[in-house]
Amino acid sequence: MSRDPHQRRTATLFVESWPAPAPDSPEMPPLAYPAPHVIACSNASVLLDLHRGDIDMVVWGRVVPDVWHKALAEAPSSQTVFDMSGTPDELADALASRAVIKAFPPLVLSDVAELLSLFSAVTQDCPQRLRLTTESLDDTGFEAVPGALRLVCCYGSASAEWCSYPDPNAGMTSTLDSFSVAFIKGSDGQDAGCLHRICHAGHDTTAPGIHLIIDTVRG
To answer: Which end of the chain is less enclosed by CB atoms within 10 A, N or C?
Structure first.
C-alpha cells in the first residue's frame, strides 16, 4: 500500500509495557509483578485504548511543529500558578481571563484549551481540577492518581516521569517527552497504580518550563 511521504511523521508506533518478573526474583511468575500497563503511540487513535480495562496509562506522543519548540525555548521566568476546580465550562472561561492570558504563552493556553476539551469528552464533562504552573519544582516524590483519571502534559524544559515498579527505588523510570500527553488511570484504592511525578528543570536550563495537570474530581 502506497503512503503519502508527507505523512511519515504521523506514522503509528505502539510501545507496550506489561508485567514482568520483579528485579532479582526470576522465580516469580510474571503476573506477580504488578507493573503498570502502558501503551504509547504517535497517533491520536491510541486514545481509543483508554476504555481497555488492562491499560493503566495511555501516552499520545504528539509530533508538533518545530515552531512550537522554538516558541517555548524560553518559557516565562516568573513563577506563576493557575489552580482551579470546576466544570469544564468554568475552567475554559477562567483560562480566557486577562490575568491568565498575561501569565502564560498564547500557544500554551490554546493547547491547554484543546486538551481540556478532550479530557472533558473522555470523562463525560465531570468536574475537574486544572493546574497550570511555571514554577520551578524541587524533586517531588512519586504518587498515584487521586481520582479516576489524570492528564499530564509538559511544555518547554518541563518533564514528568513514571515508574515501572511499585517501589520507585527498585524499578526503572521513563520520561514523558515535551508536548506528549499522558492519560493516567486512578487505582481506585486497590493498588498503587501507575506511580509518576513532575520533575524539576535541569540545572542547564534557564527556564523551568510549564506543567499541565488535569484531574477528575469526585462530586
So the answer is: N
Beta pairing, strands 173-176 & 128-133: unpaired
Predicted model pTM:
0.83
3-state secondary structure 96-125: CCHHHHHHCCHHHHHHHHHHHHHHHHHCCC
- pLDDT tens-digit map of 84-106: 999 999 999 999 999 999 989 99
109 CB contacts (<8 Å, ≥6 apart)? Answer: 95, 100, 101
CA atoms within 13 A on the CB side of 34: 11
Q: What is the mean pLDDT of residues 129-150?
A: 82
Strands (DSSP E) along 134-185, which ranges? 149-155, 159-163, 173-176, 181-185
Q: Where are the beta strands (DSSP E) in the chain?
A: 15-17, 38-41, 57-60, 81-86, 128-133, 149-155, 159-163, 173-176, 181-185, 196-199, 210-216
Q: Give dist(CA 69, CA 209) in Å, integer.
A: 11
How far is it, in rounded angstroms, from Cα 81 to Cα 29?
Answer: 45
**Arithmetic mean of pLDDT over the chain:** 80
